[in-house]
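User: Sequence in, structure out. Go.
Assistant: Echoing your sequence, followed by the structure tokens.
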Amino acid sequence: MAKLINPTPVLKGEYAKEFIKDMDKKPSKKEKDMFNRMKNPRRPMI
């Protein structure tokens, strides 16, 4: 599972590759929500 300590709107470099690899395995709903928020930073963090 990707640890999101300081999520940023832009995924880049090795972190992005690792994160996307984790997403490909079998992401939980929480991970999908986090990934979507990172892609769309205007969505409020809950």
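User: And one key feature?
Assistant: The chain has a mean pLDDT of 65.
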